[in-house]
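# nightly structure sweep
# worker-07 picked up a monomer target from the shared queue
# config: single-sequence mode, recycle default, output format = structure tokens
# input follows
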Amino acid sequence: MQVTLILEVLGLGLSVFVTDHLVGGIRGAMCAFGVLASTPTGFHGLFVSVLTAMACGLWVVLHRFDLRVEAPVLTRRKFTWLCALGCGVFPIARYWLHSGGVSVFGKV
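# output follows
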């Protein structure tokens, strides 16, 4: 579980790296801002990526803290929050897919 959440945090860095390297492939884009502005959902995707990376990072910190405490005080709250975080991803993905999500390579 921790590995997956840590990979989500690393995925944010990968998103920024890829956005910066797509500059040469998109006409009119001179920097990462231009790549994100080239699609209507570019900044929304970055915002969701930042929010999920922050939430996953916070969950990993709480999990490590809970493992060090003698009595598992945060276990129930921690996994309830994890289920809520997971359930929050599905409406975002559904909205993006049903709104005709646009990627840098055309319509999805």
